[in-house]
Amino acid sequence: MQTEKHYLGGAKWIQNLWVLWFGNFITGLEFSMTMPFMALFIDTLGHFNNWSLNLLSGAAFAITFLAKAIVSPMWGKLADRKGRKLMCLRASGVMMFTVIFTGMAPNVWWVIFLRGLQGCFSGYVNNANAIVATEAPHDRSGKAMGTLATGNVTGTLLGPLFGGFIAGIFGYRATFYIAGTLMFFVFLSTLFLVHEDFKPIAAAKMRSMKTIIRQLKSPNMLLGIFITTLIIQASATSITPFISLFIRQLLHGQGNLALVSGVISAMPGIATLIAAQPLGNLIDRIGAVKVLTWGLAFATICFIPQIFVTNVWQLGFLRLLVGISDAALLPAVQTLMALNTPADAFDRIFSYNQSFQAMGSVVGPMIGAVIASVIGYRGVFAMTAIFEFCNLLLIWYDQKHPYPNWIKKRIANEN
């Protein structure tokens, strides 16, 4: 019987888990160090009215994910043939340069261009998830994915605090320089410490996605997971580009805006960090579908009171509750995909999910920008609550109807 290889005193998959946890941590840190203050940074690059500032901030946020949505299937197909580690190196290496150059941008159009370029080569977190999901034992998959999720969440948690501190002392550009430098260490750790046993799939032997979908246990559930990923991401990012502007409105011009924005932006991450591990264990015990369903119901309830907040502390508490729902939703989605995806299509299906996730980061901020400009920031929370409730109904429907009609008809004809 083949024995499991060990590295640095632990099983290979455990070492990969912690090295990739670090990579996810820095990736989340880089994002949240800069994005809560993107609108404030753009405001320093010109003279904008409220409408144009909202739209430009939303565009700078969304273009990264629009580019990511377009190119992710191409990278996923390449990952099935060349390996996921190479994809992690590609993403971290390019991100290092684009983030640093964003800090040097002379105007908003350079910011938007560089954010789009970053999106074309992104994908570290998704490929890190794929590596861990394929190598972790099935009976520990929920715990492994929950642990990995805490890396990105912890970075997202600390990023606003770290970024707010740096921006308050050295200015907004310094946050980009430091974030880009940290991505260099992610590149090095991934290069030397991640060990992937990858068996390439020849292009001629790759099954078509239509064939793979027909052979899945629940094709409708897979599509539901894709849409769920989109809605989760749209809900999480709908207010992100404007959170500092909303907080400025709640503060009435008083207090340290950068620091308070950082603290409030970090609140969901605090709750997710605390709850991710227990909820990951719960997924292994009762199943990912149940955790996903209750997580969506709880998220719907959490967003409604945010419409009526009157001060930043109320907002911070409610954002903390949102983080608990995120701790249930993100590992549940990843676990469902890991357990229901055939090995020869793993990266392609994960890349499609990444495209839906990226589209959520486009749809959320852009719809949020329009709503914020027309009826105010509170309307964005109302929109998000509606999104989450519709998602809950979709998951309920997919559980009752696992097969789409076109597959039912094809199976009936074959029999």
TrEMBL record:
Main location: membrane
Entry's localization field: Cell membrane
Recorded GO CC terms: plasma membrane
InterPro entries documented for this protein: MFS, MFS_dom, MFS_sugar_transport-like, MFS_trans_sf
Pfam families per UniProt: MFS_1, Sugar_tr
Lineage of origin: Bacteria, Bacillati, Bacillota, Bacilli, Lactobacillales
Protein name stated in the entry: Multidrug resistance efflux pump
Transmembrane segments: 20-41, 53-71, 91-112, 148-170, 176-198, 219-245, 257-276, 288-308, 320-343, 355-374
Domain of life of the source: Bacteria
PANTHER family linked to this entry: MULTIDRUG RESISTANCE PROTEIN MDTG (PTHR43414)
Domain (Major facilitator superfamily (MFS) profile) ranges: 16-403
Membrane topology: Multi-pass membrane protein
Statement: the UniProt record of this protein carries the keyword Membrane: yes
Gene3D superfamilies named among the record's database cross-references: MFS general substrate transporter like domains
Keywords of the record: Cell membrane, Membrane, Transmembrane, Transmembrane helix, Transport
A GO molecular function held by the record: transmembrane transporter activity
